[in-house]
Specification:
heterodimer; A: 139 residues; alpha/beta; Rossmann fold; four-stranded parallel β-sheet; 6 helices; 53% helix; B: 143 residues; 4 strands
């Protein structure tokens, strides 16, 4: 059995982008790829939890960040000494130039609106495509 | 990110635990404090920023008397805050608060229960009031 890919969103609590990352990760690990992906509490890395660090050392990782501070990426990099595949919301805007965050309603941290949900699905698509690429590479 | 810096504020840091419903609840509780119950008295920071950020971000719990809110006994928010920033005034854990209030956990990782989040937020707000009262008392004692 293949090792699951650990997909970790940032814990962004200040803006809707953090919620978008979180929901995109749930979309991947709960519904689209439940047998191939799992998530992990990012706080465990901040705390320095040995079991969590060990899990990351043994499994491929993807970080999903809502801002340029890239907390998920940096916590993985620093604690597990591993470079994860990185996704950020900003990358999404760079890739899909037609997406203008000022033109649609993202919603809030507590409740995403249609614009925010659209980004959740797009981000989940990107993560799944990357997982496919990782799998092809392995085969 | 550090939000709304002012010495009159209390810091409340959620673990945001992505793996458990209680982690999602901590996040909702902090936002409800910031948006509804104590918008002028609550400051927060993304917990993982203590490791990913710089010295300025690590001063958070020195600048604000801080309460951590964890979803489980692993207490990532409390331990992470004390490791990188400063000791906390209260380290609260969701199952303990629910036990005190005789409430059962509701909601999922993806969808928190708004009523439960509001009740827990009211309870955290009481601790904030206690902390503010203590701070004001300390200031008077110094005068």
């Amino acid at each position: 059995m293949k090792k699951p890919i650990v997909v970790i969103p940032c814990s962004g609590i200040g803006k809707a982008y953090g919620t978008i990352c979180r929901e995109a990760v749930y979309e991947v690990v709960e519904r689209r790829r439940p047998n191939e992906a799992r998530t992990l509490c990012l706080g465990l890395l901040t705390k320095g939890d040995e079991e969590a660090i060990e899990l990351l050392k043994e499994n491929p990782c993807i970080s999903v960040d809502g801002c340029a501070k890239k907390c998920s990426y940096k916590n993985i990099e620093r604690m597990a000494e591993k470079i994860p595949i990185s996704f950020t919301i900003m990358d999404l805007f760079k890739k899909y130039k037609y997406l203008n965050p000022n033109e649609f309603d993202l919603g809030t941290v507590l409740h995403l609106e249609e614009g925010g949900k659209r980004l959740v699905h797009l981000l989940a698509d990107e993560i799944c495509h990357e997982m496919d690429r990782m799998e092809e590479k392995d085969d | 990110m550090i939000e709304k810096t002012s010495p009159k504020r209390i810091g409340v840091i959620a673990c945001c635990g992505e793996e458990i419903p209680e982690g999602t609840l901590t996040r909702a509780v902090v936002r409800i404090l910031m948006e509804e119950i104590k918008p002028d008295e609550t400051a927060t920071i993304c917990l993982p920023l203590f490791l990913a950020g710089d010295e300025q971000e690590r001063t958070f719990a020195q600048l604000f008397p801080t309460i951590t809110l964890d979803g489980c006994e692993k207490r990532c928010a409390q331990i992470g805050t004390e490791k990188y920033s400063h000791s906390v005034a209260f380290g609260l854990v969701i199952p303990d608060i629910l036990g005190e209030l005789h409430l059962n956990m509701k909601g999922t990782k993806e969808k928190f229960d708004l009523n439960l989040a509001r009740m827990v937020a009211m309870e955290v707000a009481k601790r904030m009031d206690r902390l503010k009262g203590k701070g004001e008392q300390d200031e008077e004692d110094c005068d």
